[in-house]
Specification:
The chain is mainly alpha-helical and 434 residues long. It has one domain: MFS general substrate transporter like domains (Growth Hormone, Chain: A). 78% of the residues lie in helices and 0% in strands. It has 17 helices and no strands. The radius of gyration is 20 Å and the shape is globular. The protein starts with 5 loop residues before the first helix and ends in a 19-residue tail after the last helix.
Length: 434
């Protein structure tokens, strides 16, 4: 273990032992600006598209570019992650994200931006993200000893989950400032990606490549087989997708909600998303701290975590329903904060259990399957936006939230008596590594 300043050591021991390892700290702190920029893009693309077209459907279609890329490329990304240098993959994808953000800023600044151009840039960024996140998660196993692996995964997931909400919140605030606007947001994103690129250069170039066994022609599908042949992992992956499909479209529809329901414009949008971020900060970090401490001591209470996940999923759906029923802006702020906290808590617990249940040499492929579930968030916003254009935003939010609460409640409760997800790693790998 590398030496660290005594003050930092005390903080690290209280929060999680993984932070005491220098190279992991470097990877962890590079995760924060990188995913912050990417999540800012989820709102920035939609804001520009809505300003150009005035259509919630085109708004959602533009942000769906991420989901299209991730859904198509995730199986290939998992195979590449487990066969090649993860450091090199991270550098390549961060460079791609930085260049594409700069291109978007140039198009907007020159007044030549069109919907199809935004969609292409969105697809390019989604493609880079499809390779970036599995490589980053799999690299964790190379940077910390086995005893600290689960703690490191929990911390990294907390950072990602936090930025899922904080990124859009920051983008909303900056978009409301005339001197910044969309051009400034995309330029900031490019600067964040550049900073991550520089930080990653400090990782040792001698890191090993992926360690999964050599596989045949169907190797791109091994991650899917590995997950779906293990009931515990399959259940966790299903539980990851459900709130994304039915609970999270409220976030991508936020620009239209701020305009049509509350009539508050960009400033109100920034305030709504900032409240969402405050809730995520509370939900994600509190759950991550609790999970990290339990994991570090080898005392993970799987049943308790599953119950926490169930409660958070139902709470997310209920908060979205209340948000749809409410027509008052000031009342909406605590409701979106509650939704943000529940979503972050749910995702943090689920992804921690998922990575604990997978063998380290298959982390890249398991995370590629997880990215396919994550890709459902921008994709699900398209039908939700289409419905909103036809029956109205409030009713759409009510239906989405109620569906999320009902399905997560039923499936989550049914899974409580089952085996602990962490036991998945001990199940026979029938066919997965064949």
């Amino acid at each position: 273990m590398l030496s660290t300043p005594s003050g930092f050591r005390r903080v690290a021991l209280g929060w999680g032992p993984a932070l005491q390892h220098r190279h992991y700290r470097l990877l962890f702190f590079s995760l924060l600006p990188g995913t912050l920029g990417l999540m800012m893009a989820m709102v920035a693309f939609g804001y520009v598209a809505y300003r150009i077209s005035g259509s919630a459907t085109l708004l959602a279609l533009t942000t769906a570019g991420y989901g299209i890329s991730m859904a198509v490329l995730s199986p290939v990304a998992g195979m590449v992650t487990d066969r090649f240098s993860r450091r090199s993959l991270l550098l390549a994808t961060q460079g791609t994200l930085g260049v594409s953000a700069a291109i978007a800023a140039l198009l907007i600044a020159t007044g030549t931006v069109q919907i199809w151009q935004l969609l292409l840039v969105s697809i390019l960024q989604g493609a880079a993200f499809a390779f970036n996140m599995p490589a980053r998660q799999a690299l964790i196993a190379e940077l910390v000893p086995p005893d600290d692996l689960a703690n490191a995964i929990a911390l990294s997931n907390a950072g990602l989950n936090l930025n899922r909400i904080l990124g859009p919140a920051l983008a909303g605030v900056l978009l409301s400032i005339p001197a910044v606007g969309p051009v400034g947001v995309f330029l900031l994103m490019a600067a964040l990606y550049t900073a991550v690129f520089v930080m990653l250069l400090r990782l040792p170039a001698t890191l090993r490549v992926g360690r999964a066994p050599r596989l045949g022609r169907g190797s791109a599908l091994v991650g899917l087989r590995y997950v779906f042949e293990r009931p515990a992992l399959r259940r966790l992956m299903t539980m990851a997708a459900l709130p994304v499909l039915f609970g999270m479209p409220y976030q991508s529809l936020m620009p239209a909600t701020a305009d049509r329901v509350f009539g508050v414009g960009a400033a109100g949008l920034g305030t709504l998303l900032a409240a969402n971020g405050v809730g995520a900060l509370a939900g994600s970090l509190v759950v991550a701290a609790h999970t990290s401490r339990k994991v570090a001591n080898g005392q993970v209470a799987s049943d308790r975590l599953r119950r926490l996940q169930l409660a958070a999923g139902v709470l997310l759906g209920a908060a979205v329903v209340a948000f749809g029923l409410n027509g008052q802006f000031l009342v909406a702020l605590p409701l979106v904060a509650l939704a943000g906290g529940a979503a972050a808590a749910y995702s943090s617990v689920n992804s921690t259990l998922l990575m604990q249940g997978a063998e380290p040499e298959y982390h890249g492929r398991v995370m590629s399957v997880y990215m396919m579930a994550f890709s459902a968030m921008p994709l699900s916003s398209v039908p939700a936006a289409w419905v909103a254009d036809h029956i109205g935003l409030p009713l759409t939010l009510i239906v989405c939230g109620a569906t999320c609460a009902a399905i997560v409640g039923l499936l989550g409760r049914a899974a409580l008596p089952g085996a602990a997800p962490a036991m998945a790693r001990h199940e026979p790998a029938a066919g997965a590594a064949a």
